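G., before I forget:
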Amino acid sequence: MKPAAFEYHAPGSVEEALELLTEHGWDAKPLAGGQSLIPAMNFRLARPAVLVDLNGIEELTFIRGADEGTDEAPGSSGSNDGVRIGAMTRQRAVERSPLIARRAPLLSETMPHVAHPQIRNRGTIGGSAVHADPASEIPAVLLAMNAKCRIRGPEGERTVAAEEFFLGLFGTVLAPDELLLEIELPGRRPRRGCAFREIARRHGDYAMAGIAASLTLDKKGAVDEARLAYLSVGGAPSLAAGAAEALVGAQPTEEVIREAARVAAAEDVEPMEDMHASARYRARLVEVLTRQALTTAAQRASGASNP
Amino acid sequence: MGRAIRLTVNGEVHERSVEPRLLLSDFLRHELGLTGTHVGCEHGVCGACTVLLDGEAVRSCLVFAVQADGRIVRTVEDLAEGDTLHPIQSAFRQAHGLQCGFCTPGILMTMVPFLEETERPDEQEIREALSGHLCRCTGYQKIVEAIQLAAVELAGSTEE
Amino acid sequence: MTTRFFGERVQRNEDEVLLTGRALFVDDQQLPGMLHIAFVRSEYAHGRLLGVDPARALEMPGVTAVYTAADLGGYWQPGPLLVPPPPIENLTFHARTQVPLAREKVRYVGEPIAVVVAESRYLAEDAAEEVGVDIEPLDAVVGLEEALAEGAPTIHEDLDSNLAAHAVQTKGDYEVACRAADVVLARDFVYDRGVSAAMENRGIVAHWDQRAGQLTVWDTTQAPIPIRNGLAGMLGLSESQVRVVAPFIGGGFGPKIMMFYPEEVLLPWIAMRLGRPVKWIEDRFENFFSTTQERGQLHEAEIALASDGRILGVKDVFIHDTGAYNPYGLTIPINTQCTLLGPYDVPSYRSEFRVAFTNRPIVTPIRGAGRQHGVFVMERLLDLGARELGLDVTEIRRRNFLSPDAFPHNHEILFQDFAPLVYDSGDYEPALDKLIEMLGYQPSVDKPLVPDSDTQDGVRSSGSGDVLRGVGIVSYIEGTGIGPYEGARVRVEASGKVCLVTGVGTQGQGHHTSFAQLVADQVGVDVGDVRVITGDTREFHWGTGTFASRGAVVAGNACHAAAVAVREKILRSASQLLEVAQEDLVLADGRVTVKGAPEIAVGLGELAVHCNPLRGAVRSGTEPGLEATEYFGPERAATASGVHAMVVAVDPETAMVEIERYLVVHDCGTVINPTIVEGQIHGGVAHGIGNAFYEQLVCDPDGQLRNASFMDYLIPTATDVPPIETAHVETPSPLNPLGTKGVGEAGAIPVGALFNQAVEDALKGWAPGLELREIPLSPNRLFELIEEVRGEKSSETDS
């Protein structure tokens, strides 16, 4: 279990990294935290010819309020109470960040479910997003939170919503010569509540199923917006449309939540079977977890509990 | 093929030329002879190879040695001072927190920052902190007891 | 006899080097000029090996050599049959043992085909990828029934079928018992495979010193002496030219026994051929294929009961999976056969097994070694019987326990050590009483353990309503500490400290401490002053190894005997030196003093020097020094026993199970060090929990393992194993002077049965009629079983 040989580059800036990626094209693989890539390399399941190690790029490591501009203002949401996280920010730093806990509590709540502290000490939020593992927690949270991904390539920068960022199994819109620079999460809104739930065989394992949910209520307490994103149940991280439809416009009663969970399991997800769980079992887990997550999110949205 | 690196391991500066694919675990064990860091799975699950990289517990099998260039690494060999065991080490001995001892160095290296960060952890916190390590001998119970003992010991020493 | 340390919670001698990273494990051995080895292994479970082409690999950078079976010449020999079968009447047995490198055929994924030697492991792995291997795939034999079915592809083509063995053992007449029974229950049971998953993988370093004519092999083996003997024979060397060292070993659990694994046989040969030290360290991926595995069995069993719950007879017919080869003979299925009887009076028994070759990795014992299957079948049958008869699960056990005056109890069949299955001692009810007291729950016949969800007792009241609680209680026995023998040498050195050497290796059991306790008591020194050497053939010539829960029994008694002999020498020499009668001497604290006149004394160091004079005449026939070597061999196994209880919380919707409490009352005879014994039990229980709920080797019909990693093969972690409440009872074994029984495997044995029982209990109201008869039982599988039962119920009500 020793990795195959590769050419190694450790650029000190995004500029330099992009040049290397342009030069080597499909042969090159950016190395972020490496906590998924290096095991795959040790098994020789991944054998990139060229590794471009992003760990020396300091400009990619930061957690800032969206209002503390240093660069040009990212995205077009116009919100200023969100948070911007550099792609190379360690998951452990995200977990420990009081700013994120205040402004994007769903992400903080989710982080302890991501593997173990030793992995989070190396793993990065951007690496996890770009790896786009359907079993990974972070893509689901980015979707539920309507995150935006700022990308730079040889042609310049572009910003993409999480919904467009993920494409299929382990796929994203990133071209081989592009880098994810940062993720912007919108701030908290009145009457919005979020929740994360998953069921894993063991603490820290990839989940057999999981959900990141965000519910926004209108002034009358009916659901205004519902964003439900699942992990470990399908190809690309994506939002559950049917369940959202069942929720929007309704009061989030036990009955409504139950029906939304049923729809999510029956229609929105297309779980796959693997050695740990059959499709049917996953669908059951989706239903149970959706119920739990929506109940918590609705309570939080109506101010019954934090966050 | 070799790439020059310079890093501090257990307070000592080492300069070497290494192949980029050399894992930090292999570098520590076979280049520096620090064989206290053990290798159990080489895919980041078992935790036996855990070391401190700039003070944070990481899997040394999931870091390339070249990535430790300019960094500070600490391994199990650095815990005891001469013949005096680190309080966590003595607690492990006292509570029978080890049997074959293969997974132990990795666990100790996780527990050093954990106990610095977490004063008086409860049993659940300890078990969660420990859950990134596999042990086939102990059933974990006496490891948990050892960590509880160490936590009390360390809290006592900082209160003085 | 002074017993200052026997039974005490002494801290371990070996811990300091382990905790500071200074202990030597095999992979820590670095020798100048050392080369590294990687293996080319079969990617097919079954196939014809048409050709191996090393040419391209030999051109790779840093490659010294590539060897295939053809290069081995006469050294290519199948490995030894380690355990010949016991003399069971009408036995069928075909031994087919593993080969160093495959030729003509490959029989499991991972079977070694070629070996690459290079300057580093990285380069060796690069080159291994370049070795050309031409295999014509054959249909793989994976399932057990399929393996023995008419027309199945034969794995060893010189045999007519894949039948490796067939054996029947009987006691009384089951058919008669059956006719007399009020209730006869028949069920099938499944127990699947797992890996031992010692945290340290296997490894070998071999060094041939040409000038000294000396081969040294560092090997992660549980049995260095048999390996030394075998290697010397194979390589044509004197046993004195071969030194096998089993240094600190990172867990054994069975598969590190004296297998003569291909790697173990090849590395010494390569070291001698190349004249350079060589190292092979198994990686975790290899471990899932190349280290032996265990536990695949299918049972069809029957129990015949009287209306009062008494067992009249048991019949069990099973198939045991031995994998592609069977070097370990029949140890596992015989353990299954014998352990099934448990702590019970079973007047008639018919047990028949067939052993099947399959295209899967080789099967040899892992912690429990077939015992769990027997316990699983018997305990589940008793639970079903209790349900049928309206008895409490503890009551049916009580009614069948052997009474304390039933010992020695002869079960009239043969055990794995070739001796009749005779229990030496035991007392089972007090252990059960103690367990119930610890559980805080008193069952009764009128109030079955869990008839419905509204019982009043404390243990099962469901807290949140979302989870259902269930309790399980099972009993088991374990034949431990089998022969043939072990030896030990105790020597008092000039420093006054003591050196103890024994032939067994140690893999974490604390031998450096428990053996030292035995010696310290006799020789009158502190435990820390006894330096223990294990697992080095240069230090001790005779012995077998660490397996079958025999360390404390067999080696322990040898250590004790040697220490007693040294004690006698000390007192005799001191008596001569001090001119005081032996009865008037006190041996303690590293010195011999005279009773009532403590100023007259001699230190042990001084006495040792006195007994090894450099000048002057000693009497003819005098042995020098304060040293003795003794051996111990028990006539048969010592029967340990235990009762375990488990409280689970099951979420009926998700089929997720949490083990909330785990309780053990254990009897391993006299206890040398309770802390160490507890540790052994805890570890065994955790291993059992893994087998019961987490660990499963997922194998495709073509013999491909789909989860060869710790990502997907789930070893329980600290959040999965509950605190284990442990208590001891002591029924000393009459078969050895110390009264000890083995404990290394005990914890792992009853957990599968217990887990099924407790989960079934929890789900009694939710899924009435649910029967759990398989291990492992993942949440996914449990979900399926619950759905099946509930589906049937709802379709019944629909119609």
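Strands of chain B lie at 3-9, 12-18, 50-53, 56-59, 72-74. The mean pLDDT of chain B is 96.

More on Monday.
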